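Translate sequence into structure tokens.
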Amino acid sequence: MRPAQLLRAGCMAGTLAVLLAAASPRAAAQVREFHGDPVPPEVDAMYERGMAFLLATQMEDGTWPAQGSGQGPATTAMALLALMARGDCPAHGPAAGALRRGVHALIGMQAGDTGFFGPTMYHHGFATLALAEAYGMVEHPRLAGALRQAVELILVSQRENPTGGWRYQPTARDADTTVSGAQMVALLAARNAGIEVPDEAIRRGLEYFAACQAEDGGIGYTSAGSGNAVRTAIAITSAALAGETDTPLVARATNFLAQAESRGAHGSTGGVFYHFYYAAQAWFHTDMDQWRAWNAAQIARLSQIQHRDGHWSERQGPTIDTAWGLLSIALNYRTLPIYERQ
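Result follows.
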């Protein structure tokens, strides 16, 4: 069995009713087994410090604090993903109680009538992804219902959008590649967890990325032009998770990403940690030799700038930047279902 399958088997063996219940006073033994490259000890050390920071900063209502505009589904979703990515799940592991509270809080942010995790589709995509990964580990009727409703909103939004992509609001008729990437990864994670997602939705999403690719391989924001590294990594990740790696889109995009990173072009309006989150997945799912080199450099980068309390913070605030930092090295564990090699 693969790591993610073993994790799900261990979580399913637990008491499923505890998923959305209060935290038990004593967490069950963590279920972890790894196949593949050995996990560098410095990754374990960094991850433990980062997890400790996230566990210490979770709020009483189960959410995590966000910077600027206050709490939001995306911040809580990313914290949940980072905690799950090392091998904990809502039924097992030192973080099980925090995960149960966080999943419960995340579902509580969903609009009951529409299934929308506002205020924007960024939040919605990341929240749907977190629910999909949780559902991929532990089945629960309430979790399944929330996930299906969230997926349906993404599908309806795309069907009513002539571009085949997504923008900030579900009713938008235009699109951009960053918001579209969040929806694509969420749909692919949900499909991986057993939720029905039409092939047509994935095809149209990939066609939108292709329409935004310039001759140099870079992916633009709303059209083909002014490509940057993070948008290109988003497109690669979406295509790879769909099993579409042997395509001109990916070939040209990986070439652009390699050149951009060689120039140190890691930043974007979302910040360098946003780039790290997607670039790790892009290389892991397309070129293991490139990923190993990228991963070694990433471990060195992060180890130099991690704060003593375990957090990282650059542009989006300590919670989500820490979560993105952890997720950029979580592929060393490969326990999240979406972090399996396609």
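Note: DSSP finds 13 helices and no strands in the chain.
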